């Protein structure tokens, strides 16, 4: 069972790994965007990691909503509304549960990913974070259907996300700033898909 | 790249403090939300005009706050959209009871944050808000397969013209209609001769070899249509103006408001030289320059290069263009 403490550990892990990978994310963004993804993500997730020390949260969903609003308010760019919406929607199916197992977590993940799609209007193959999230969600749900527990489902999701991220390299971007490059956006891994993988790998380390 | 900085992380907030200090009689600066507004507060009964976006394009947008143009502007990090709370504060600050027109440049981040702000205000019983998105950059092919054309130089002209109409008492739907019309009759194209460096990143946004130029560049140092050998000013003027004229469908006898905009790192000497070439191209096409503006009005930090914006003009556009304006970045007739 995954508890509030585990979710807080997730955000602490996200913050640490994004901080560590910030240069890399910015480097990817400089190739096909405007070179600020690492800086912006590090700023937002650092604030999220501090929340647990500053405030007592009554429930997992209250905490995740606060994380979502914090990201919306601190990241900026397109990533702020998109990741913010992901965490806000993640909270929905987990309302008032003291701890969760794989089934509600799958529902939460679906709600979060649906939120990203609704906000960003992206489709698979557009070369966005959705190219990591879509296969991750599918892998999580397949693992769950096969009888796996939370840890295994999350591991499958993280691995599928990483494959999805790698799959963005040859794609021509159709959304976001990279789309202005047209054909020249091919040959670069998408920064949003890369940060999505970091978040899902952190989930596999902490929520399982 | 050497820059005038203290801590690169503080560049926006320290610049805003300087702006407040330089214009104490005209501007109010909310340092917390990074919102710049008119010192006198919103004008009762007038439609509020708000814009905002990433910093690094100065004087856009905060430099256009004042009578005849914007009521409030909010400033994001360099090249990063403001967050919804900032837009909410700016929209509330600008509300004089007649609703607020929110001018948003077409970038995914700006549009998503503006939409979230409008959703927040709708649940908070806030002012009536109309969003108008500018997308005048012909360098981007507008298709289902991109984020659409970018909002660039046309945004300056739109804020001037619609600001004048709002000042005359035009209502919210009238202002929104005018804004969409001005956007529809405006196109731009830019060129970069050298990159820019975001202070927090510390390295140039792109590499440009000596003797090369980036044609169709955006205002964030993002690449454009293609990289080609550096031409003469005359050749560059043709390469910028011709796609704009074609896309606008300008014909012999048409008149335009022309903005020859510097990207931040090109001297006025060269910008005037370029304007002369631009005017020659327009002359040859039989297009009359009704009004012109030459200088750094929507920049990309210290990027070298320029952009050309043409707004198809009629008597009404010219009249609104000539109306008084009193802002740090644009001032006449007042």
Can you walk me through this structure?
The complex is a heterodimer of chains A (208) and B (334). Chain A has 208 residues and is mainly α. Chain A has one domain: Alpha Horseshoe (Serine Threonine Protein Phosphatase 5, Tetratricopeptide repeat), CATH 1.25.40. Helix content of chain A is 69%, strand content 2%. Chain A is built from 8 helices and 2 strands; from the N terminus they run βααααβαααα. Chain A has helices at 4-32, 37-54, 60-74, 79-91, 102-120, 130-145, 150-167, 191-206, and strands spanning 2-3, 99-100. Chain A has a two-stranded antiparallel ribbon with strand order 1-2. In chain A, helix 1 (4-32) runs antiparallel to helix 2, helix 2 packs antiparallel against helix 3 (60-74) and helix 6 (130-145) runs parallel beside helix 8 (191-206). The radius of gyration of chain A is 16 Å and the shape is globular. The termini of chain A are close together. The mean pLDDT of chain A is 95. Chain B is an alpha/beta fold. Chain B folds into 2 domains: 10-185, Dihydroxyacetone kinase, domain 1 (Rossmann fold, 3-Layer(aba) Sandwich); 186-322, Dihydroxyacetone kinase, domain 2 (Hypothetical Protein Tm841, Chain: A,domain 3, 2-Layer Sandwich), CATH 3.30.1180. Chain B has 8 helices and 14 strands. Chain B has helices at 11-22, 84-93, 108-123, 154-167, 172-184, 233-248, 268-285, 315-322, and strands at residues 27-30, 35-38, 48-55, 72-78, 100-105, 129-134, 186-194, 212-215, 226-229, 255-262, 288-295, 304-313, 325-326, 331-332. A 6-stranded mixed beta sheet of chain B has the order 1-2-4-3-5-6, with helices on both faces. Chain B has a 6-stranded mixed beta sheet with strand order 9-8-7-12-10-11. In chain B, strands 13-14 form a two-stranded antiparallel sheet. In chain B, helix 7 (268-285) links the parallel strand 10 (255-262) and strand 11 (288-295). Chain B is globular, with a radius of gyration of 19 Å. The chains are: A mainly alpha (208), B alpha/beta (334). The A-B interface holds A 26, 30, 33-36, 39-40, 72-82, 84, 119-120, 172, 174-177, 179-182, 184 and B 54, 76-85, 107-109, 112-113, 115-116, 139-141, 145-147, 150, 198, 200-201, 203, 205-206, 218, 220-224.
């Amino acid at each position: 069972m995954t508890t509030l403490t585990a979710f807080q550990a997730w955000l602490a892990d996200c913050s640490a790994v994004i901080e560590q990978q910030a240069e890399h994310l910015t480097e990817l963004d400089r190739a096909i965007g405007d070179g600020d993804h690492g800086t912006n993500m590090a700023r937002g997730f650092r604030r999220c990691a501090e929340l647990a020390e500053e405030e007592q949260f009554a429930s997992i969903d209250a905490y995740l909503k606060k994380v979502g609003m914090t990201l919306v308010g601190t990241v900026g760019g397109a990533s702020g509304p998109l990741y913010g919406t992901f965490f806000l929607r993640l909270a929905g199916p987990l309302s008032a549960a003291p701890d969760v197992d794989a089934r509600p977590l799958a529902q939460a993940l679906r709600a979060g990913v649906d939120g990203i799609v609704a906000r960003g209007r992206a489709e698979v193959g557009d070369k966005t974070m959705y190219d990591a999230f879509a296969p991750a969600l599918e892998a999580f749900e397949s693992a769950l259907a096969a009888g796996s527990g939370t840890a295994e489902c999350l591991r499958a999701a993280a691995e599928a996300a990483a494959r999805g991220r790698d799959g963005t390299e040859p794609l021509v971007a159709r959304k976001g700033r990279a789309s202005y490059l047209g054909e020249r956006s091919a040959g670069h891994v998408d920064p949003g898909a890369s940060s999505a993988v970091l978040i899902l790998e952190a989930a596999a380390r902490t929520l399982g | 790249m050497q820059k005038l900085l203290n801590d690169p992380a503080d560049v926006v907030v320290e610049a805003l403090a300087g702006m407040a200090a330089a214009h104490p009689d005209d501007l109010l600066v909310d340092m917390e939300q990074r919102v710049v507004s008119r010192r006198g507060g919103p004008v009762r009964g007038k439609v509020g005009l708000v814009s905002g976006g990433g910093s690094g394009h100065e004087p856009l947008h905060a430099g256009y706050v004042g009578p005849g143009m914007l009521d409030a502007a909010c400033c994001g990090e360099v090249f990063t959209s403001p967050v919804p709370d900032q837009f909410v504060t700016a929209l509330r600050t600008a509300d004089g009871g007649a609703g607020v027109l929110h001018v948003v440049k077409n970038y995914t981040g700006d549009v998503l944050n503006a939409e979230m702000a409008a959703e927040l205000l709708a649940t908070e019983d806030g002012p009536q808000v109309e969003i108008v998105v500018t997308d005048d950059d012909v360098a981007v092919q507008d298709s289902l397969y991109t984020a659409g054309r970018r909002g660039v130089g046309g945004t300056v002209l739109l804020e001037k013209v619609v600001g004048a109409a709002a000042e005359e008492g035009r209502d919210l739907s009238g202002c929104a209609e005018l804004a969409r019309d001005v956007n529809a009759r405006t196109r731009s194209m830019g060129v970069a001769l050298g990159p820019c460096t975001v202070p927090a990143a510390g390295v140039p946004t792109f590499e440009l070899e000596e003797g090369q130029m980036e044609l169709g560049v955006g205002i964030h140092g993002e690449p454009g249509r293609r990289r080609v050998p550096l031409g003469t000013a005359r050749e560059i003027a043709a390469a910028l103006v011709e796609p704009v004229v074609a896309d606008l469908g300008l014909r012999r006898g048409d008149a335009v408001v022309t903005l020859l905009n510097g990207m931040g790192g090109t001297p006025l000497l060269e910008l005037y030289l370029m304007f002369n070439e631009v005017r020659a191209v327009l002359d040859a096409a039989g297009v009359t320059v009704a009004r012109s503006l030459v200088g750094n009005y929507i920049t990309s930090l210290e990027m070298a290069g320029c952009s050309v914006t043409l707004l198809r003009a009629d008597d009404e556009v010219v009249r609104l263009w000539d109306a008084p304006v009193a802002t740090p970045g644009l001032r006449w007739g007042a």
